[in-house]
Amino acid sequence: MFRIDMSQESKCPYCESIFEDNDQLSKHIDKIHNNEDAIGTQGF
């Protein structure tokens, strides 16, 4: 049986996407979710 260690993974609080580390998560949020906030489409 395989054991998955999720302690190194990070989950996006907006869309629940999984990333390998906090650096990738931060880049994702800056690129995707911060742009949505700027143009007023958050939540669509």
Helices and strands in order:
Elements: E1 10-11, E2 18-19, H1 22-39
Antiparallel strand pairs: 1-2
Q: Summarize the biggest pleated sheet.
A: 2 strands, antiparallel
Which structural category do the helix and sheet elements fall into?
mainly alpha
Rg is: 13 Å
Can you count the beta strands? Answer: 2
Helix content: 40-55%
> Average pLDDT, to the nearest integer?
78
What oligomeric arrangement do these chains adopt?
single chain
Instruction: Estimate the global geometry from the Cα principal axes.
Output: flat
- What distance separates the N and C termini? 40 Å
- Uncertain ranges: none
Secondary-structure element pattern, one letter each: EEH
Characterise this structure.
With 44 residues, the chain is mainly alpha-helical. The mean pLDDT is 78. It is flat. It has a two-stranded antiparallel sheet with strand order 1-2. A hairpin with a 6-residue loop joins strand 1 and strand 2. It has one helix at 22-39; strands at 10-11, 18-19.
Key features of this structure:
44 residues; mainly alpha; two-stranded antiparallel sheet; flat
